[in-house]
Amino acid sequence: MKSRNKGKKSANSGTFKRAGFRAGSKEKGGKWSISDLLSLIFIFIVVLGIILYIYQHLTLLF
């Protein structure tokens, strides 16, 4: 979370390149690299895990 906030403030920093696939694709002229795909997959897995975690707790409550 902290690295994402730093990346948004300074576009030229390395954290910004790692934070999102959009920044990397713009710099490379729209081409997708391995690091962009890995970061996208990692973010997707984290979001999916959070959704499943909340869903399990909601089903336990009700």
Helix content: over 70%
N→C terminal distance: 31 Å
Tell me, rounded to a whole number, the average pLDDT: 70
Q: What overall form do the CA principal axes indicate? A: rod-shaped
What Rg is obtained from the alpha carbons, in whole angstroms?
A: 15 Å
Count structural domains: 1
- How many helix segments? 4
Number of strands: 0
Unreliable stretches, pLDDT < 50, 5 or more residues?
Answer: none
Describe it.
With 62 residues, the protein is mostly helical. It has one domain (2-61). The protein has helices at residues 2-9, 14-19, 21-27, 34-61. Helix 3 runs antiparallel to helix 4. The longest helix is centred in the last third of the chain and has 28 residues, at 34-61. The chain starts with a helix and ends with a helix. The relative contact order is 0.10. The mean pLDDT is 70. The chain crosses the membrane at residues 37-55. Keywords: Membrane, Transmembrane, Transmembrane helix.
Précis, in short:
The protein is an all-alpha fold.
List the helices and strands and how they pair.
Layout: H1 2-9, H2 14-19, H3 21-27, H4 34-61
Helix pairs in contact: 3-4
Keywords: Membrane, Transmembrane, Transmembrane helix
Transmembrane segments: 37-55
Could you list some keywords that capture this structure?
62 residues, mainly alpha, rod-shaped, 79% helix
